[in-house]
Write a structure and sequence with these properties.
globular, alpha+beta, 29% strand, 8 strands
């Protein structure tokens, strides 16, 4: 009996001392990924909070929504974001002679510093492609609810079409 108690105590101590993997917190002030194609323009914003924002800009009307992350989803995201070094990537990856392709814009903000990475066509590195696909999988598991809150998704200039030209004035001919 005494041996069993000692054995159980030793087992308890070993289990208690096992080192759990510590997940680092969200490494940015915010992170926005925007996606544009022929029939869509959407943005997804992650912050240090448990709220994720989503915006559909095209087709109109513009709609904002949000989802609350569960702790397991938050840990997955933090691990994903801490596992990639955005500083090693160039600002633009663009496939020549491609029109109407899929484009992504990644906006990373840390303490007033911003890093933008524009991706267009089949020139995306495997690491970034895997990262974007992982974000898509996480997004597909979230339940977004509409919100009237105004959310800043950053400068989407690379993805937004130019404004239409002004309408010509009507010319009236007098006989």
């Amino acid at each position: 009996m005494k041996n069993q108690i000692i054995l159980l105590s030793l087992l308890f101590v070993l289990i208690s001392c096992s080192k759990k993997e510590e997940v680092k917190s969200f490494p940015f002030d915010d992170f926005v990924i925007s996606s544009a194609g022929l029939h869509h323009l959407t943005s997804l914003k992650f912050t240090k909070s448990d709220t994720v924002y989503f915006q559909k800009r095209y087709p109109e009307p513009i709609e904002n929504s949000y989802a609350i992350l569960k702790s397991t989803e938050s840990e997955k995201l933090n691990k994903l974001f801490n596992g990639i070094n955005f500083t090693k990537f160039d600002s633009i990856y663009e496939q020549e002679n491609l029109y109407d392709g899929q484009a992504y814009l990644l906006n990373v903000s840390i303490k007033e510093k911003h890093k933008r990475i524009f991706l267009y066509g089949n020139v995306i590195s495997k690491e970034l492609k895997t990262f974007i696909e992982s974000l898509g999988q996480i997004k597909s598991n979230l339940k977004f609810l509409p919100t009237k809150k105004v959310v800043d998704f950053g400068d989407l200039g690379y993805l937004l079409p130019p404004p239409p030209p002004p309408k010509p004035e009507r010319i009236h001919f007098v006989n």
